[in-house]
């Protein structure tokens, strides 16, 4: 298939409004060829029906080594980080890793965190309420989930900022989508930190997530040290970066619709449904990666073994063929079949925690700052230069 648009991800229009580009692509073709920023060819799947089927197709794998021979650097990165976590694993390895990690994410455990998350959210507002303005990302959306996930992992408060720097660098390097040499320099300090923390918890277990992962057992199996390191790093990124974007993107959408903001403030019981619409409309995670392990077809289009595909969750969530008027933000819409957390065996393990954090964050903002509004214009907003995740660099607000 000829690549007729090698620069989609570097297209200025895409950076500002990817949804308009996704709509154009959906109307044009079921599979859209383009390239990654490093020139690697990739096929985009953007239609809801096709994305659903692809997410559940076992022929599309997560581990590149199960589809084609990876280069030397890729193999090194796999051994260091990617090869032993759920993000890049296929069954049976994925089944075992997910089962072991899920032991620490039981609903009862997540529900017990509500009071702690609420306290943290209110403390963050206490710091800024007298100012009358803040950067919603820096002062609230960012510190809330980083505090939650690092507390879960048992990381000292003094190291929270350091973890954000590492996590941000890993995301920016593109390690979630392609094997970039840059990522080695970003992952190594975090690997060394987690190795030390795991060793400490083996000697002195606590009630933190790392201690729980160390003791978790499934079919007489436990996580190895490399698996513990990669799993904790994955949980850090997934439990932090995506929630920042959920809060930032969701509140941006809400503030752009003041009538809905006011109605939600007056109808707080509707908040869980509103969170689902925020997730659907302003997807924190835009895509997931797959590789064709065999020659196959999608929507009648032949795909060669080894082909890199990106399933665009954000595009599927805005597909009018699935959801009428999908480009409209409507918090009264009760539609739970969105793909913000993917589907199939790789459905986001941390989805209950992200929903809880999002609900508490928005509830706190509505309650404490009911007159919250943007302190900038849409055209002046800047977005982070990542492909997988879409989030704001900053969001000035006032009240």
Walk me through what this model shows.
The protein is of the alpha+beta class and 399 residues long. The protein has one domain (8-398): Cytochrome P450 (Cytochrome p450, Orthogonal Bundle). The protein has helices at 12-16, 18-28, 48-55, 72-80, 93-102, 107-111, 114-128, 136-141, 143-153, 160-173, 182-203, 209-215, 225-255, 258-266, 271-281, 313-317, 351-368, and strands at 31-35, 41-45, 60-61, 133-135, 287-292, 296-298, 301-303, 308-312, 373-374, 396-398. The N and C termini lie far apart (52 Å).
Task: Give the topology, please.
Elements: H1 12-16, H2 18-28, E1 31-35, E2 41-45, H3 48-55, E3 60-61, H4 72-80, H5 93-102, H6 107-111, H7 114-128, E4 133-135, H8 136-141, H9 143-153, H10 160-173, H11 182-203, H12 209-215, H13 225-255, H14 258-266, H15 271-281, E5 287-292, E6 296-298, E7 301-303, E8 308-312, H16 313-317, H17 351-368, E9 373-374, E10 396-398
Helix pairs in contact: 7-9, 7-17, 9-13, 10-11, 10-13, 11-13, 13-15, 13-17, 15-17
List key phrases describing it:
disordered N terminus; Cytochrome p450; three-stranded antiparallel sheet; about 400 residues; alpha+beta; single chain
Gyration radius over CA: 21 Å
* Shape estimate: globular
Please give the number of β-strands: 10
Which CATH class? Answer: Mainly Alpha
Describe, in short, the structure shown.
49% of the residues lie in helices and 9% in strands.
